[in-house]
Amino acid sequence: MLPLLEKVMLVLVKAMKNPRSALCKTSIMAASDVFKAYGDELLDAANSNAFDQLLLQLLLKALQDKRFVCEEADRALSTMVGSLTPLPLLHKLRPYVSHSNLRVRAKAAVSISNCVSKMGLEKMQEFGLASLLQMAVELLNDRLPEAREAARSIVVSMYEQVTENQDQKQESWQSFCEISLPPAHVQSLIKIVASQ
Fold first, then answer.
1. Three-state SS across 57-109?
2. Ramachandran region, residue 128 (left: φ > 0; alpha: ψ -120 to 50; beta: rest)
3. The domain that contains 31 carries what CATH number?
4. Rg for the chain (alpha carbons), in Å?
């Protein structure tokens, strides 16, 4: 099926847009199976536009009125994070932090948080530590608690990786934040990790 992955993803997207909830749920379940079976090959084999459309539909379906569709979409997003390498997936999720729909932002934030928790310091640096911090700060000021909680989790994961082998953890974290962010945001990040 590998040569057909792009077409398969586009068919799944079309089925997810269908107003019939049962068909929508079944297509979401099929997307989970595709994530499990192909993992990173999805990003390599398919047109990135097809994957982007699939990702957006999953984020939107996680907001549906029908609870069973929402739950299935949440499971599919978790499966996606578990099946794909965090760094390329993080690049795909990043634009949704600024999405106009605050609930899409929150769902994307949870997936981003789950990606970051799987990353070591080297992969975080490859993505850009300052970029990750700025993304977390942006989400900390979001209107939805789900997005703010995900941002806290991102900050804690980063703190643990940045300070893993250092004696003066609090001081090194503060220095790192001061280099990467405007002063107004530094204190809020220090408070988040103070209890760690």
1. HHHHHCCCCCHHHHHHHHHHHHHHHHHCCHHHHHHHHHHHHHCCCHHHHHHHH
2. left
3. 1.25.10
4. 18
Its sign, for the CA torsion 177, 182, 183, 184, is: negative
Q: Which domain holds residue 78?
A: 1-84
Check whether residue 128 and residue 189 sit in a common domain. Answer: yes
Write out the two tokens for 58: 């999953």
Specify whether the CB–CB gap between 161 and 119 falls below 8 A: yes
- Cβ(119)–Cβ(87) under 8 Å? yes
How far does Cα 3 stand from its chain's mean position?
Answer: 27
Please tell me whether residues 139 and 58 are part of one structural domain. no
> Could you tell me the pTM of the whole model?
0.91
In order along its 196 residues, the chain shows pLDDT tens digits of 888 888 999 999 999 999 999 999 999 999 999 999 999 888 876 567 889 999 999 999 999 889 999 999 999 999 999 999 999 999 999 999 999 999 999 999 999 999 999 999 899 999 999 899 999 999 998 999 999 999 999 999 999 888 886 655 666 788 888 888 888 888 888 888 876 6
Number of domains in the chain: 2
2 Cβ contact partners less than 8 Å away, ≥ 6 residues apart = 38, 41, 45
